[in-house]
Amino acid sequence: MKFKRLDLLTLLISLFIFASCKNSSTIGLDLDPATAIQGKLIDSVTVTTRTVADQPATSAGLTTYPFGYITDPTFGTSEASIAMSVGLPSSAAYDFGTNAVVDSAILVLPYATSGFYGDSTSTYSIDVHQLKSDITDAGAAAFKTDKSFAYNTTLSGYPDGVFGNYTGSVKPNTPFKVTAIVSGGIDTLVAVPAQIRVKLDKAFIQNNIVNLGTASLINNATFTNNFKGLHLSLNKSKSTGKGGIMYFNFSGGTSQLEVYFKRQNSTTATVVDTVLASFPISSSTAPVAATVSHNYTGTDIAKQLSTPTVQYQSTYIQGLTGVRNKISFPYLASFIKNLGGKVVINKAELVLDLSSGTDIAPFYPATVLALYTTDLAGARVNILDNQAPTTSVANPNYLSNFGGGYDATNKNYTFVITSYLQSLLDGKTVDYGTYIGASSTSILPSSTTYLQPPVTSADRSVIGAFGNATNKVKLNIYYTKIN
């Protein structure tokens, strides 16, 4: 009986001790930081952000390429043009045959399945020029987005060197039908993906392609050395509205220069054949390059870039290698030290509020943002929470729900940076620079491409800074203090 009473007394004492431990910031040594969100919350740690220019990126070997011109009252103007090589209809020599005469020529520019930013109802005037030089031997280093490609503006008989133009609205999601030539049969209508079809001057194509002769059409290298290539630019004086940035797909096999021509039948001289020759434009076989530029004159962005030491109420993030945010936690270590004792971070969230009134159509906020750091050499590196494990390197700190997607309900972005922040506190990681930038919505956060300055996204966002009273960047830290 005494033993039973002792057991009951022990149980009651144990329950009393357990119930008295109400401060979750001083217990929890067994908490699993990956699953628990227990502990005391701090959300007042200073977070500094500043707008900085992003770096030029390579546009070599992309599947989609930006093109257009957009006027944004907050971000100024952005412009993208395209230089492209043109291949022969086959890898072998091409022969137009006897007495070939061009009927018409069309430059086919298929839209990418995901990618338009701006006002599609604006009027876009697209000019086609001939490149001054062959870009196939330029090398990947030459295809940075800040690289310009010279084109001919003094062609005889062509004002400003323009031999092709499309003027109208854009419909990136609307397929339609075109007439297809059927050899030995009746031409028929066929459905094609959404695209822009730019009519080219047939006399120019006759003189600069058909009349080159077989010696210049023996292979792609000889052909591009003679023809050079094409250049697309937006004619701003003939365009109206806010504009936008569209994306063309140069990897799907449907981007091409179509030349419709008549020639003498190879067996019966009195018979004339109508023929279509399709000259491919493919980033997988020949260079295609994008040139991107931004003009922030008269905007708050220009002010922030020229005086970067000031903390502003809002900061700016923009795709197309525009601007990004540099972010830091200058008082994190001293703040935690003042708590006394060692701190284990159970969860850390970086929350970025969209600045109020900056998501007005057609300038919608970026769908996805990227968060990364840099190493000692300045190379971009995924933070610890976003380093996906491989077959040879494990990473128990990796989070598949790392974050970065836009929350349309709360109008913010959230990143989970628990391991990164803990590593900073423990001195295992040195902050050589932490950045938040735009990202392509089609790129997984843990991929290496995620770290590159975005060329395939023109989205932009205005973020409330730490000192902003209503919309601000905030660091939520759930921690356990170890006695």
UniProtKB/TrEMBL annotation:
This is Uncharacterized protein DUF4270. It comes from the Bacteria. It comes from Pedobacter duraquae. PROSITE patterns: PROKAR_LIPOPROTEIN (PS51257). Keywords: Signal. InterPro entries: DUF4270. Residues 1-19 form the signal peptide.
